[in-house]
Amino acid sequence: MSHGYFGKVLWIDLTNEKFEEENLPDKIYRQYFGGYGLGCKLIYENMRPKVDALSANSIFGFFPGLLTSTAAPFSGRYMVAGKSPLTGTWGDANSGGTFGPEIKKCGYDAILFKGAAEKPIYVTIIDGNKEILDAADLWGLDIIKAEEKLKIKHGKFIKTAGIGPAGEKLSRISGIANDKGRIAARSGIGAIMGSKNLKMLVLKGNHKVSMHNKDDFMSLVKIYNQEGKKKEPGKLIKSVLNKAPNFAKLMRRFRIKMSGSAGMIRHVYHNYGTSMGNTLSAEIGDSPIRNWSGIGMYDFPFSKSKNLSAINIQRYKVREYGCYSCPVQCGAILKVPELNFEETHIPEYETCCSFGALLLNNDLMSIFEINELCNRAAIDTISTGATVAFAIECFENGILTKEDTDGFELTWGNAKAIVELVKKIINREGIGDILADGCDIAAKQIGKGSENFAMTSLGCEIAMHNPRIFPSLAFTYAYDPTPGRHTAASIDMIEIGSIKKFQKGLKLPDGWKKNEMKWIKGQKITTCFYQALCCAGLCSFSTLFGPYPFLDIINSLTGWNITVDECLNIGLRIQTLRQAFTLREGINIANNKLPGRVIGDPPDERGPTKGISVNYQNYYEGFCTEMGWNPENGYPLKETLRDLDLEFVIKDLY
Ligand code: SF4
Fold first, then answer.
1. CA-based, 20 to 30 A from 365: which of 267, 381, 385, 575?
2. Using CA positions, which residue lies closest to atom 5 of ligand 1?
């Protein structure tokens, strides 16, 4: 008997209105865990190469992690996956909340969609009954209104995930949202859902996965959670931490980077979420400023950014929340009387930066309003903010004029104009129609040199962290099969926490920061471990909070005896298949280049990143060799594919 998973996935054929269960062998779970790893295996094998991502032949799905729906800390995540309509590469995106566990509660390890409905529909799987229902009265509604309407019809215990107006209008920067606006945002998977006329997936179930050794599993969870409570910082440290956003200038002067003890980070995340970075990151040079052309301490100094500080945002907090099974609970609900918002999600750092520092906008109300607009529309805030930055730069350079913007001055920091442009992008109105598919597609239509203002990697808008502060980000922005992400296993980002402390027996080469070969080996370990972590369903933040019995938890759940080496091999398999998918689509990752501004080419002449240019291209050949890929073009070698039980890829790449 298998433990930790059900051994079956559900295929839903929207063209023929059919539900079909597929039983999977145990081996697949031990090879891929779940999540996008399982997704990549199923989609790679069932979807023809070079299919239009927005056609009926495109396949996408919802994939909870291996540990999702259990009490394992941080394990409540699910992933959506398919071919990215934005980049044409492999695409996946991740969200928390309570939807992921419900997939497992319905008795499935994944739910996949193929075909397309002729008219708007939604799918329900409620207490074992599966139906495809008319969504005429849901189409056009935002995520929150649609979820509320479905709860009136199907009961308050259902869980939903679906698209808002952005996905309906096939915006290639749209995502899929659950829990009233938490979004699996990147890769543009919302547009795939829209192209299938699928508004929502509605779930309710009461299945539980069986456990190999429930006592061991629960004891590991209990000990971890108790230890976490013990690490709470004392009153004095807490009071200092609570004022930390005001120390932004000090942090710049002493060039202190983002680090700290597990207990401190836990306290900060619980109380402030990622918004803690709003002022600090701008000062230390991490936040991109003025579409990556500015310097925080001069162009968006603390005197401006303090309006967006975590302390200011906290004034609006009415309650905290978090994902299923999470002991940290980093989310929060705000009440904003100035905007008549009774309830709105706290904006994440990425959102605050995309619409703040990146646009020189320090109007907090506009950030709250945009966050609510984007959540309801289910659109990626990073890509939308970066596209607004692109449009502002076009306007400032006379490429776009007031005629294009319906009369408003699209200038840096003009909060009113920025809000209006976001509405236009969501609704595909006027210039918004051109911008709704992200910078690169817009630049192709606009021309006139506008491509110089598109800060993208292979078509994906680059996230809000500067490789001159976290150098390995340049590498993963350029070369991960899902480009442009800050959540793609950059060794510097992961080491804010320390994976060595997180999982016993996992080790990076000593001195990896100073030696090229050691860095490459370290990046390989990080890449492989991170794939396994995600596919187990754990949140990326989980590595920040100290030692975690990751493999012990997996082994007590499943009855396996996975070692660190086997875990890294699982990650290598997943990353190699994501790479193969992207190469099979004809995307030349090995020759990808980042915009000069993003890597300091030319370098800044002053400020915290003065004189820094990031060298990332020189590392790729060595990295490919370490991964068992061809260093010239990134193609996985035949023997690597055989070793990883990926022989089915050979016919496609050779
Ligand atoms: S740390 Fe935050 S994002 Fe991560 S699982 Fe917990 S609540 Fe969710």
1. 267
2. 74
Cβ of 541 less than 6 Å from ligand 1: yes
Q: What are the residues whose beta carbons fall under 8 Å from the beta carbon of 267, sequence distance 6 or more?
A: 232, 233, 238, 241
Beta bridge partners of 132: 123
pLDDT tens string 343-388: 999 999 999 999 999 999 999 999 999 999 999 999 999 999 999 9
Q: Is 158 in the pocket of ligand 1 (CB under 6 A)?
A: no
Return the CATH number of the domain spanning residue range 258-461: 1.10.569.10
Classify burial at 352, counting beta carbons within 10 Å of its beta carbon; exposed 0-12, middle 13-18, buried 19 or more: buried
Q: Which CATH number fits domain 472-653: 1.10.599.10, 3.40.50.300, 3.90.650.10, 2.102.10.10?
A: 1.10.599.10
Atom 4 of ligand 1 has which residue's CA nearest to it? 539
Q: Which two tokens stand for residue 23?
A: 């039983």
Ligand 1 mutation target, pool 265, 325, 539, 542, most atoms within 8 A of CB: 539
Cβ–ligand 1 contact at 110 (below 6 Å): no
Residue 506 CB neighbours (<10 A): 19
Of 190, 146, 185, 184, nearest to 170 by C-alpha is 190
96 lines ligand 1 (CB under 6 A): yes
* Domain 8-204 falls under CATH 3.60.9.10: yes
pLDDT tens track for 555-612 = 999 999 999 999 999 999 999 999 999 999 999 999 999 999 999 999 999 999 999 9
Q: Is 329 in the pocket of ligand 1 (CB under 6 A)?
A: yes
Please give the distance, rounded to the nearest whole angstrom, from the Cα atom of residue 273 to the centre of ligand 1: 9
Query: What is the 347 CA–ligand 1 centroid distance (Å)?
Result: 14
